[in-house]
Amino acid sequence: MKSPFRNPPSIPPIFLRCFPSPKCLCSTPQPPTSPEKIPSDSHFTRKPFSDSDCPISSSNEPHLTSFSTQDASLTQSHVINTLLSHKDDPPSALKYYRSIKKKRDFVQSIDAFCVLLHILVRSSQTYKHVQYFLNDKFGSDHSGPAPLAFLDHLIDTTKRFDFELNSRAFNYLLNGYVRFNRIDDAVDCFNGMIERNVVPWVPFTNILLTALVRRNLMDKARELYEKMVSIGVAGDCFTVYLMMRAFLKEEKPLEAEKFFREAKAQGIELDAAVYSIAIQAACRKPDLNMAGELLGEMKDRGWVPSEGTFTIVIGAFVKQGNLAEALRLKDEMLSSGKQLNLVVATSLMKGYCKQGDIDQALNLYNKIKEDGLAPNQVTYAVLIEGCCKNQNVKKAYELYEEMKIMDIQPTVFNVNSLIRGFLEASSLNEASNLFDEAIESGIANVFTYNIFLNHFSKDGKVKEACSLWQRMVANGQVPSNVSYNNMILVYCRAGNMDMAHTVFSKMLEQGLKPNAITYSTLIDGHFRKGDAERALDIFDEMIGVHIVPSDYTFNIMINGLSRVGRTSETRDMLKVFVEGGFVATCMTYNSIINGYVKEGAMNSAMGVYKEMHENGISPNVVTYTTLVNGFCKSNNMDLALKMHHEMKRKGLQLDVTAFSALIEGFCKKQDMVRACELFSELQQVGLSPNEFVYNSLIRGFRNVNNMEAANDLHKKMIKEGVPCDIQVYTTLMDGFLRESKLHLASNLYSEMLSKGIVPDMVTYTVLLNGLCSKGHLENAYKVLEEMDRKGITPNVLIYNALIAGNFRYGNLEEALRLHNEMLDRGLVPDDATYDVLVNGKVKAKGEDLSGVSSKEEATWCGGFGRSGDAIV
């Protein structure tokens, strides 16, 4: 039979009148006081009810209605007795009650109403009218007596008039309070029923639970449920659903899961809705294994998860980084007849963006538009953020503009993502324009300013940061802890620790509390200045004000001490930190290893390397690269190669920096065969040689007098688009000058100038030394004059070359003049100068001053004898 509380028929107009105020109702009828008329048990013998049984005294009980002026046929006793005469004929009782309600002089009493309810609930033909009468009596105007008083009337009339206790009337009363939004009265009614041993029915209890959960009255809902359990009523499937929903609204997924498991253990027949909310609880924990198991159970029972359930689970898998499973569930959702909704599509786009697969995210974005789904603000936010994080800020800005065309107002989150993306892409103008636009539109917030402050701070741009700070304050933005931390950082990076501490003091004056980042920044600043003692003092101060150092702080301390040459102290400090709860990472050990490598203490560096292994920390590429560099610098190429081979065994690949160190090491040893082998390996593993790798090889081939190979590498650089810097050109020109190939040296010099590369002191030294050693003193002086015009003071090496050149060709007077000029310029002659002037050591062993053809000489002079872009 359909429950009477679901979709009740409309109430007839005759029942829509409310009862008078409680003041107009008769007090509780009193049974006869004679002991012989009252049986001792709870069941009473039916007997006529008279007016004398309800004493009325207008003086003593002014709130009671007097019947003295009313029609005798409508007195309370007469109405009750008439109703009792129809006790076994509920339809007749209902008909009678309806007839008297139409009379003007009818005033209803509580007891008569209760007798009517007891009679009506006895028949399936009339019990539904109980609900109507209660709705009529207890409407939204809070009419009628208090719940507990009405319950007492119901129970009392049951006993006095020999009715069987039928809880239907009580439960309808409970439901009536809920229906008219009288939740507190409903809770009182529920509690009163339990206290009076009247069992609330589960469906009506569920209705009350639903109302409590909807109003976020979770404590009352739990208390109500516990009372149900205390009387042996465990509830049904819908009860389980409601309580799990209550736990989730309180952000207690563990309790929701526990409730679900207990319900299953009790054998309660659970439906798809309960499983769906259990899956939601599993996703909130998150416990995606459990979510998957529950989905499997649903399918085993023949239930198809709802679109909402699929949406929640797919979003959870994306959040946990399991995009593959999220995509599988999406396919399962579509195959079950569900449509791809915008929430699922946006979640999957976010998953693609997290994996760096922007193309797939954009493909999905285009597909949903083709299918008629309109992207919303969240969709654009996900894509803009994803494009910016994956260095595709151009596409991000296109989406931003498209968003505005679609009349979707960009948020400050969108703007901040774009500004951050432009700055990371070194597009300062675009970032500045967007920043100005955000300020003009009024959406810029303190986070927007902080992004720019952080950008200037990292680069140590004090002037720009200060200007932005003033603009921020002028526009009414209140600087935050992050703002002050950025200003402290900018001064620390600029090396102005006094101003950094001034900002720190200002931060305290504003009532802002420094955090671990604040102190860590100051500590790092002092270490960068080489002031380890002050850095240690700041660390002690941090501990003194009860700010717990972060792992970032500990790493700064270790890296800082290693940087200033106090690496041995870091190992003792590390032990103290670990005892305090710090978990050393690979980065921590790398800092110590790097410190030892800089100090040339390779044995100590290897000791830390072994300690890493003992503590279960696997070295990474940085670890091996640092050790390879150290061994190469100490000319221990065997151990450097050993580290290289160990990396390969562990499946790690050297980066370009490590390859560069190895190649340079073998080049210094003039082992160009091994150097070239490493160069080939570098390319085979998919890395691209940079200018440092080429510099090492070109310098190596020059040192073994193989300029043909060196020049081939130069051509390869140009072909592959690797920038040729001044070091490459200087090395090549030096090598060709040594081989008296003046024409090639001249061509390289012209090529260098055409690329806008300005010669430095090393370049000038190479040129002058090469010209003087080959006897081209006239052109050497032109180079010297060009240096004077550019305000470049020749160094001792240049003067030594000129002095040696003049001495070599017998120009002793000019050689002495150059010596005096050196002294006038404040240059101190070195041993090489005096070896030339005093001992006449001007010709190096094996040096050949002949062999320079007239054609080469003319070419060289032409190359260096021009004005304008050329040196002379």
From TrEMBL:
Cite the record's Basic and acidic residues compositional bias ranges. Answer: 38-50
Q: Where are the annotated segments for Disordered? A: 28-61
Which PANTHER family does this UniProt record tie to the protein? PENTATRICOPEPTIDE REPEAT-CONTAINING PROTEIN GUN1, CHLOROPLASTIC, PPR_LONG DOMAIN-CONTAINING PROTEIN
Q: Please indicate if the UniProt record lists Repeat as a keyword.
A: yes
Question: What name goes with this protein?
Answer: Pentacotripeptide-repeat region of PRORP domain-containing protein
Gene3D superfamilies the record matches: Tetratricopeptide repeat domain (1.25.40.10)
InterPro entries, from UniProt? PPR_rpt, TPR-like_helical_dom_sf
> One biological-process term from Gene Ontology?
mitochondria-nucleus signaling pathway
The cross-references to SUPFAM superfamilies, in alphabetical order and at most eight, read: HCP-like
- Residue spans of the PPR repeats: 166-200, 236-270, 271-305, 306-340, 341-375, 376-410, 445-479, 480-514, 515-549, 550-584, 585-619, 620-654, 655-689, 690-724, 725-759, 760-794, 795-829
Which keywords describe this protein according to UniProt?
Answer: Repeat
Name the protein family: Belongs to the PPR family. P subfamily.
Q: Which organism is it from?
A: Gossypium raimondii
Tree of life domain:
Eukaryota
Q: How is this protein annotated for GO cellular component? A: chloroplast
What NCBIfam families does the annotation carry?
PPR
Pfam family, any one? PPR_1
